[in-house]
Design a protein that fits this description.
The protein has 9 helices and 5 strands; from the N terminus they run βααααββαββαααα. With 223 residues, the chain is an alpha+beta fold. β4 and β5 form a beta hairpin. α1 crosses α3. The relative contact order is 0.16.
Length: 223
């Protein structure tokens, strides 16, 4: 079904959530982390933030840290009012379906990312790993395991206890880049292959066994 042009709007019209751009030397301290958490809590009160719960992984856990486990059922209620103008659009069997989707900037923001101009282009330094670093890591096993939760709580405590309260200190416990996150999350090297096999088996099952049974799970809007 065709969607009228005025139904879709540019992402630039959405409220921007960002921790900002900086020039070196840049050093985030514990007060910056507290400000980031409060700002993230505010974002998670946006209706479209349910998209973070749908993404799973580290975004799912950070979202729950802001809004609590009691908010999980809200992700299944249906799309937000922002889904049609700004969200994900899929056309299936001639029908137009919409769902909430996070922009790249919103994903960065949820993970606590600062943009620091170390060269011509800004480098991303974040308090938490982004989906790119999480995907294929030793913790990416297809569900939030006890080991994932243990790592999350340990890292949170390290931030609370180990990040400097003063900008003139020499510690390195603050936000780090994607390369650092990928290296720090390696753990068991076989995990990536294990996850790949699970994904392949799941995709085959959905394509061959459950393709006709999933329509009731779709939230759709017809224009």
């Amino acid at each position: 079904m065709a969607v009228s042009p005025e139904a879709r709007r540019p992402l630039s019209e959405l409220r921007t959530f960002s921790l900002g751009y900086f020039r070196p030397p840049f050093k985030a301290v514990y007060a910056d982390y507290i400000a980031y958490e409060q700002y993230r809590h505010e974002f998670m009160n946006e209706d479209r933030a349910r998209a973070a719960l749908l993404r799973g992984g580290i975004l799912w856990r950070l979202a729950l840290h802001s809004i609590g486990f009691d908010a999980l059922p809200s992700a299944l209620i249906g799309i937000s009012r922002d889904a049609v103008p700004f969200g994900q659009l899929l056309t299936i069997n001639g029908e137009t379906h919409f769902d909430d989707e996070l922009s790249e900037e919103e994903v960065d923001f949820i993970c606590g990312t600062y943009y620091v101009y170390t060269s011509k282009f800004p480098q991303k330094l974040s308090w938490w790993p982004g989906p790119q670093a999480w995907s294929g890591s030793g913790l990416d096993v297809g569900f939030w395991s006890a080991r994932c939760e243990s790592w999350f709580q340990t890292h949170l405590e390290n931030i609370r206890q180990g990040v400097s309260r003063h900008r003139d200190s020499s510690d390195n416990n603050g936000p780090v880049n994607n390369t650092h996150w990928k290296h720090g999350l390696k753990f068991n090297g076989a995990t990536k292959k294990f996850k790949k096999n699970i994904d392949a088996a799941s995709s085959e099952f959905l394509a061959t066994k459950a393709s006709g049974k999933l329509s009731f799970l779709s939230f759709s809007v017809h224009l």
